[in-house]
């Protein structure tokens, strides 16, 4: 695309003020501004409702619980993959075991769908088996 230089604005993009719009006006010097000052300093309505908004944000719906459970499952699978790669590289995988142990100790969402809970149970069981195997290797040496 070639740019040949600055172009003048087209007639479609130039707009004037809307008809009947008053615009900005300063108060008259002789008028009393007490009513305007009181209105300007009045607190905004609804400020007391912030606690209600915060409480609503703390409520977790089923979609958010499912999203957290899926994120937890994928995180545990990633930690298991890290451990597998460390063991294949000949490393003891202590760092990967530590991350796996921390991941499995995180809070698990409750009240999940049975199929999702079953998958999470299987992933957590596999992670627990790997942690137990690592403990046996540590005590054997």
Explain this structure.
This is Flagellar assembly regulator FliX. Residues 1-38 are annotated as: Disordered. Residues 29-38 have a biased composition (Low complexity). Keywords: Cell projection, Cilium, Flagellum. The protein is mostly helical and 141 residues long. It has a domain at 62-140. The chain contains five helices and no strands. Helix 3 packs antiparallel against helix 4 (94-105). The longest helix has 27 residues, at 62-88. It is elongated. The termini are far apart.
Q: Which parts are unreliable, with pLDDT below 50 for 5 consecutive residues or more?
A: none
Number of helices: 5
Termini separation comes to 69 Å
Shape: elongated
- Calculate the mean pLDDT score and round it: 76
Region (Disordered): 1-38
Protein name: Flagellar assembly regulator FliX
Keywords: Cell projection, Cilium, Flagellum
InterPro entries: Flagellar_assmbl_FliX_class2
List keywords for this structure.
single chain; 141 residues; mainly alpha; 5 helices; elongated; Flagellar_assmbl_FliX_class2; cilium; cell projection
Task: State the gist of this model.
The protein is mostly helical. It is 59% helix and 0% strand.
Layout of helices and strands, plus pairs?
Elements: H1 34-41, H2 50-58, H3 62-88, H4 94-105, H5 114-140
């Amino acid at each position: 695309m070639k740019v040949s230089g600055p172009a003048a604005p087209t007639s479609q993009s130039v707009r004037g003020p809307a008809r009947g719009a008053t615009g900005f006006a300063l108060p008259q010097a002789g008028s009393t501004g007490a009513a305007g000052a009181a209105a300007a300093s009045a607190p905004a309505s609804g400020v007391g409702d912030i606690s209600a908004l915060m409480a609503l944000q703390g409520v977790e719906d089923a979609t958010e619980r499912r999203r957290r459970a899926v994120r937890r499952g994928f995180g545990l699978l990633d930690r298991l993959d890290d451990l597998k790669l460390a063991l294949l590289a000949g490393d003891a995988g202590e760092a990967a075991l530590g991350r796996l142990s921390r991941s499995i100790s995180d809070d698990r969402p409750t009240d999940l769908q049975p199929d999702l809970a079953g998958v999470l149970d299987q992933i957590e069981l596999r992670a627990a088996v790997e942690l137990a195997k690592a403990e046996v290797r540590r005590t054997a040496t």
